[in-house]
Amino acid sequence: MDAKILVIEDEEAINDCICMSLRATGYEVSSFLDGDEASASLENRHDYNCAVVDIMLPGKDGFELLPELGSYDIPVIFLTARGELQDKVRGLTGGAEDYMVKPFEMLELLVRIDKILKRRGTLQAEIAIGDVVIDRERRVVTKAGQEVPLKPMEFDCLMMLVRNRNKALTRSQLLGALWGMEFEGETRTVDAHISRIRRKLGFEDVIKTIPRIGYRLEM
Question: What pLDDT score was predicted for residue 118?
C-alpha cells in the first residue's frame, strides 16, 4: 500500500511542487494551505504516514499543529524559512522528527521522508527485480550479488520508476520530481539517465519506452 503524506504549506507554488514530486514518487498526498483547515480535517482523516509542515501558516501555525499531529502518531518534518536555532530546538524537542530550512532540495526532502517511513516500517527495506536487489536504506544496488555503482540521480530515477511500477511516467514528471523544476527542452537528460540504468542493470526489457510519453518499469 502506498504511504500517505500530508502537506501543510501556505505558499501555493511550493505546495504544488512538493505534491507533484511526492505523487510522481508514488505517494498518496493530501495538502492544505491553511493551518485551521488542516486541523479540522484531522478529525475525519488521520491515517497519514508522515506530514510535511510549514511553521508560518494562516490560522494555526506549525508549532500549534505539532501536538495534534502527534496525538495521531503522525511523524512531522518541519519545512520552513525559520532557521533560527531556537526554532529548531523548539520544533525537535516538541516532537518533530526532522527540521528542514528553505530553500531546500526536493531530493533531500524525499530522502528524509523515506528514512522516516523506513524507520517506522512503512517501506520495504529491499526490493528484488529478477537478480537485481535494491537496498533503499543503504542506497545500494546489486546484480547477481555484485554491487552495481549508480550515481545518486540514477538511483533516485530508478526508485521513482520502481515506486510507480507498471505505470507510465512522463519525462516532465521525472524532471520535475528529480530536479525540482522544469528543464524545458532538456528531456534528453532523462533519456540519458534511463539509458545508463538499463545498461548497468540489464533492464532493457524491464524499463519500457512509452512512445511520445516517457517510461514504465514492469515487474
Answer: 83
